[in-house]
């Protein structure tokens, strides 16, 4: 069995060709798609976070709303850029959203990716400390978040508080028990996968990775998962970690599917630079009739190694069409691969 969810980047544009023409559209449609995915039997609804862009940016109101409208599906992010985050305030928001959802939050976080503006985190009030890079700052924010989510008191109480305090040092509230074990790190390299394992975070590996060996993307990703699991075992954590990979998989079962994605059937891995110093390999798009997809996906070593598959969806095509894509995978592809 494999958990199957969707990942939406939450794009919106005023174009007449888009079903999501405003921020309100994409927020409300995201809720509706999560509800539809739960009804179809999907296991997760994940959302990408980007700042200064016509995309989803502030995840916790959305996650809380989805939590109130659903009862079973996991709800999460893929990923939150920790360079922009106040980890104390984030712990409050995450705790509240997780309590509303009944403990279903699965938060993917990372050091971030190239953004819409130069050093956008500076506008949010954050700067690397002396000797730090912005990536170091993102990891430092993450370590603070993980510590706070343990739920241990650390703040000295006021001797004359407005309201009575429990004894001892105080913690950030609301605290949601178990959320600390449901933080995922979006790792772009083997070294950050190892770091995530050492800190006890689950692994979220996306459709791009630093090109560290020149091998096919899915092979490099499978090796990254092996590095992660080995480091987890060495760290001696007392629970089993989870691992997700994301893919673009488009089953072609109607003429409309063929119109949108018929030209992607010959997709291959691509290599490019995501910044001045980082060469990355980007995973292919899978687009074909279900029987062909089954055979292609059998060869994907990283999907086989992961327990969770997150499917990127073209959210601007609307709720009904994206629900149709999810249904195609859950009903026509997953059973033949033993995922259901």
Automatic annotation (TrEMBL):
The cross-references to InterPro entries, in alphabetical order and at most eight, read:
Bact_Lucif_Oxidored, Luciferase-like_dom, Luciferase-like_sf
Q: Name one GO molecular function term.
A: oxidoreductase activity, acting on paired donors, with incorporation or reduction of molecular oxygen
SUPFAM superfamilies named in the record: Bacterial luciferase-like
GO CC, one annotated term: cytosol
Q: Which Pfam families match?
A: Bac_luciferase
Q: Where is the Luciferase-like domain?
A: 9-255
Could you tell me the keywords of this UniProt record? Answer: Monooxygenase, Oxidoreductase
Record's protein name: Flavin-dependent oxidoreductase, luciferase family (Includes alkanesulfonate monooxygenase SsuD and methylene tetrahydromethanopterin reductase)
